[in-house]
Structures are given as structure tokens and as C-alpha cells.
Amino acid sequence: MSVPPRRAAGRLAATPSLAPRDLSRPRPPAMAWQVRIITLFPEAFPGVLGLSLTGRALKEGRWGLETVDLRPFGIGKHRNVDDTPAGGGAGMVLRADVLDRAIDTAQRGAPADRDAWPLVYLSPRGRPFTQAMARDWSRAKGVTLLCGRFEGVDQRVLDHHAVEEVSLGDFVLTGGELAAQAMIDATVRLLPDVLGNAASTEEESFSAGLLEHPHYTKPAEWRDQPIPPVLLSGNHAEIARWRQQQAEAVTQARRPDLWAAWTDGQPD
């Protein structure tokens, strides 16, 4: 007799049903940060989010994950969720009526204030996802992510629900699930007690507007390349100065856009 797999303590999952269950009823962990994901592939989660620090935090109930399967909201015998694009063209478009029901279900019990609970469609035409956005999401009560597929989503449902479009980068994926996992990872690691050392998030790339300085560890010399002597000096002020200089140099060389924004924000 097979034993069903145990579900992580912090993970919540929506059961596919033609009569979606009420998401507004209280469920533990009540105070934890929550993410709800509307997707055609709920089995893709938690994926890498179930590993390492994010996975441990999920099991400990420091955050919660809920997948809302889009397929049961589909139309007809085959539960179709998409149709051909109006005006012609390649591919298929996710239907507004199907997504409307899924979004209504996913948002039950969530605050109407979008600062407290963002509603996001993962789209290559969206606003770029940044460290600042991850920090804003981590300060919210939760977030709902809509993972697109095919050619895209009927614009009417995005307008009706005032869905924010966010992009992982200037490239196209086959669906939003990978982007969702990346954004969730970036957000969850900012939650209290997820990382062992809170200071590490303050020193990372983008946190201060610059890319992060280089890192070194043992051995002290590797293939005739020694660790920079200042890092072994024990002089914390000099180490901090060296790291700042390195961060500025790396940012200026690799990300002129970030460098320009950072220098513009510096006092004269």
C-alpha cells in the first residue's frame, strides 16, 4: 500500500474543482506571508522553492504557498481555457471569462489594497522586477501571481481587475511559472528569520543601488592568486572602504544604468 506524500506545513494548495472552495476561511499559518499562484501547472510548485532556506521556511510555516489550478475554470467538456486571437495571428490567448473566475477565487480573503496584496501578471511587457519590488512585496501580507501561457491574456480581464504586469527580464519564456519561482525566491528570502544573517540582505547587489563587491574565502592563495591583503588585515574600516570601492567599480563597468542612477542620487 502506497503512502501519500506529506505536504509541507506551510504549503497551501487549492484542490481542482468545478465548485472552488472558499479561500477566505481561516487556515494556518494565519499571520505568515502568503503567495497564491494561478497556473495551468500547479505541479510545478513548490519546485526549487521547496529546497534550501526557502524550503525550510515553507516547512516551518514562515510563509505559505497556494496554487490555484486554472483548468477547472475552463469552458465546456474539455475545460478549454484559451481561444484564437481576435483579429487573427498565431497562438492562443487565455480567455477573460475563465481567468475572471480564477482570479475571483484566488483573491477571496485577500485585502483589496494592492499595496497590502499585489495582484500580478507575469509578462515580458511588464515593469521590470527589481530588488526594491521584492522588498515591497515582502512587506505586504501576500501576493497573487498569474502565470501566463500561449500568446498571452485577454486584455479585458487585466483591465477589469487592475492587474499589474511585471517582467523578469527582456526575454520570453514559455510560461510564467519559472518567473514566478524566481520572484518568490527573491521575496521570501527578505522575510524575517528566513536567512540566518539579516545583514546579508543589506549588503547584496541592488540593496544599496550598486552591484555587490567580490567575495573570497579559504584557501588564502589559489593558483597563484592570493586573497586581497586588505581582507585579511582585520581593519574593518579599510575593509568596508575597499568593498565600497569594488562595488562602485563593478557597477560602473557592468551596469552603466545603475551607475548613473546611483551617482545621480549622491550628494554633491
Automatic annotation (TrEMBL):
Enzyme's top EC category: transferase
GO cellular component terms, A-Z: cytosol
Chain intervals for the UniProt region annotation (Disordered): 1-27
Catalysed reactions, as listed in the record: guanosine(37) in tRNA + S-adenosyl-L-methionine = N(1)-methylguanosine(37) in tRNA + S-adenosyl-L-homocysteine + H(+)
SUPFAM superfamilies linked: alpha/beta knot (SSF75217)
Gene3D superfamilies xrefs: 3.40.1280.10, tRNA(m1g37)methyltransferase, domain 2
UniProt domain tRNA methyltransferase TRMD/TRM10-type: residue ranges: 34-260
PANTHER family from the UniProt entry: TRNA (GUANINE-N(1)-)-METHYLTRANSFERASE (PTHR46417)
Record NCBIfam families: PRK00026.1 (NF000648), trmD (TIGR00088)
Protein name, as recorded: tRNA (guanine-N(1)-)-methyltransferase
Species in which this protein is naturally found: Roseinatronobacter ekhonensis
Gene: trmD
